[in-house]
Amino acid sequence: MTKARPIQPPGHLAPATRKWWLSVAGGWDLEEHHRRLLTLAAEAWDRTVMAREALAECGLTYEDRFGQPRARPEVAIERDGRLAFARLVRELALDEIDPPQSRPPRTGGGR
């Protein structure tokens, strides 16, 4: 019988994010698809941090060729990363003690 290899975080994650990934993976009984969601959440977090750092260095806006202020692309990257992270963490139900109750799918009614 071979010993099971410990689960390792993806190497491309930032060191602090790898530490978070390991704490979640080690503290929860995750199946393979959950680990993939966890990885996506970690990547979204790293992307958010990278965008925030770029915004701190370059500012929130730039002037287009007509001299009009425009939001830098990193503003959308940061926003999208935050939303993705929050949704993935919610999907994993990491903040719940009891297992999540299933929600019925959206049907598009009631608009």
Low-confidence stretches: none
The helix-and-strand class reads mainly alpha
Instruction: Indicate the mean pLDDT.
Output: 87
Q: Determine the strand fraction and express it as a percent band.
A: 5-15%
Shape summary? elongated
Biggest sheet features:
2 strands, antiparallel
**Radius of gyration, whole Å:** 19 Å
Helix share of residues? 40-55%
The tally of helices reads: 3
Distance between the terminal alpha carbons, to the nearest Å? Answer: 57 Å
Encode the helix/strand succession as letters: HHEEH
Main β-sheet, spatial strand arrangement: 1-2
Tell me the total number of β-strands.
Answer: 2
How is the secondary structure organized here?
Elements: H1 15-27, H2 32-58, E1 61-63, E2 69-71, H3 73-92
Antiparallel strand pairs: 1-2
Helix pairs in contact: 1-2, 2-3
Can you describe what's shown?
- The protein has 111 residues and is mainly α.
- It has a domain at 31-92.
- Helix content is 54%, strand content 5%.
- It contains three helices and two strands.
- A two-stranded antiparallel sheet has the order 1-2.
- The longest helix is centred in the middle third of the chain and has 27 residues, at 32-58.
- The N and C termini lie far apart (57 Å).
- The mean pLDDT is 87.
